[in-house]
Specification:
This protein is an alpha/beta fold. It has 14 helices and 16 strands. The chain binds pyridoxal-5'-phosphate.
């Protein structure tokens, strides 16, 4: 495939945008090469500036669960745009999408809409601190909760020490309030709680991890977190920005029947427009301004275009009783197919999957946390990525990303993807 125009556009972009991109992973630093500039997308396919057609397994990093340019969503946006695009005043649409989200998701009474997943997680943490009157939070290595300061922390010397900021610009003062634990490791969490008695406001977790590849919670992990939180008056925050409205109508809370205290949303909830949200039971949400003292606001929050897109998306998902089963079946089919060809080609691998989230790790050991995710062979991943790209298959340009399966993918698309994986890995061993 040719990427001349993309290459040229990337050169132009780098002159005026840092690194040529508005979000770092897009720059292909993890895999090398030149990012692809998109012209349009429809259903399961992307069309780039060089007129290549790619089968898309990123889907805007999750939102396009029904495929690109899904007609009811596009219609909702275009209809509402004619009425004006922003008012900074309440609209009926906001109440409608809030009511629908609350109907679909268990254990939430009220929801506040923001403009991104980052904002949702940042605000959820502030709310948890305001509600519990405690300062510290526990997060898990390899979990991503957006780019606000409190979350840009990695393990310093061992997971039980205070976090060291892993981005310049995050102050030590901020970092010291973020404690790091290993995913799927309840003992680790328990030790952190014991060492920081009555100081922990919240534990935030991706209940199915998706930002170190897909990593399912071990049996009992989420339940264990819930019990620890209850015992120590800590709020449990499920960051369902990726999993919400994707793994089930009610997200992981529904899938595994576990209650969280605060839930964060993004991605699917906006139908492809910039939307995030956080939600909880009434007692917690009433701490937010204007009812309570915890401040949180946004000029464009609840924007009519964004709410219309989100409402159309959620309405579709809510009315299609078979959607999550269909997504699960398609992804299972893909998993089985890839598994078989990698086995045939003697490629060492581990595939993790939950519903329509799936990732291929080039390592033989189980991938259960950030440490094991890091053991994957990145050189092989780069070859895999570029090989698939050459076959017209677009997966995320990083070994730490989940593939997102959409309902627009046909079994024909999945078959050609499996065939491409076979071609790419044929001579690897
Ligand atoms: C994408 C993501 C975020 C951040 O959302 P943005 O809209 O990119 O700010 C937060 N948490 C999780 C789990 C995510 O996958």
């Amino acid at each position: 495939m040719q990427y001349q125009r993309s290459s040229q556009l990337f050169i132009e972009a780098q002159k005026v945008i840092p690194g040529g991109v508005n979000s770092p992973v897009r720059a292909f630093k993890g895999v090398g090469g030149t990012p692809i500039f998109v012209k349009s997308a429809k259903g399961a396919y992307l069309y780039d500036e060089d007129n290549n057609r790619l089968i898309d397994y990123i889907n805007s990093w999750g939102p396009m669960i029904l495929g690109h340019a899904h007609q009811p969503v596009i219609d909702a946006i275009t209809d509402i745009a004619k009425q004006g695009t922003s008012f900074g005043m309440p609209t009926e649409l906001e109440t409608k999408i809030a009511a629908l989200a609350i109907e679909m998701v268990p254990n939430i009474d009220k929801i506040r809409f923001v403009n991104s997943g980052t904002e949702a997680c940042m605000s959820a943490i502030r709310l948890a601190r305001g509600f519990t009157k405690k300062d510290k939070i526990i997060k898990f290595a390899g979990c991503y909760h957006g780019h606000s300061d409190s979350f840009l922390i990695q393990a310093g010397s061992g997971a039980s020490t205070f976090g060291i900021p892993n981005s310049p610009g995050v102050t030590e003062g901020t970092a010291k309030d973020t404690l790091l634990a290993n995913y799927n490791d309840l003992n680790n969490v328990e030790a952190l709680i014991a060492a920081n008695k009555n100081q922990i406001a919240a534990i935030i977790v991706e209940p199915v991890a998706g930002n170190m590849g897909c990593i399912p919670p071990k049996e009992g992990f989420l339940k264990g977190l819930q019990l620890l939180c209850n015992a120590h008056e800590i709020l449990l925050i499920f960051d369902e920005v990726m999993t919400g409205f994707r793994l089930a109508k009610g997200g992981v809370q529904e899938l595994y029947n576990i209650k969280a205290d605060i839930v964060c949303f993004g991605k699917v909830i906006g139908g492809g427009l910039p939307v995030g949200a956080f939600a909880a039971r009434e007692e917690i949400m009433n701490h937010l301004a204007p009812l309570g003292p915890v401040y949180q606001a946004g000029t464009l929050s609840g924007n009519p275009l964004a709410m219309a897109a989100g409402l159309a998306m959620l309405t579709e998902l809510n009315s299609d009783q078979a959607i999550y089963k269909r997504l699960d079946e398609k992804t299972a089919y893909l998993e089985k197919g890839i598994q078989e060809v990698l086995d045939q080609n003697n490629v060492i691998h581990t595939i993790n999957r939950v519903g329509s989230m799936i990732s291929v790790h080039f390592d033989a050991n189980p991938v259960v946390d950030f440490e094991s995710a890091k053991r994957g062979d990145n050189e092989l991943f780069k070859k895999f990525f570029h090989g698939l790209l050459n076959e017209g298959i677009y997966i995320a340009p990083s070994a730490y990303e989940t593939w997102f399966i959409t309902d627009a993918l046909t079994y024909e698309d999945l078959d050609s993807t499996i065939k491409a994986v076979a071609n790419v890995t044929r001579f690897w061993s």
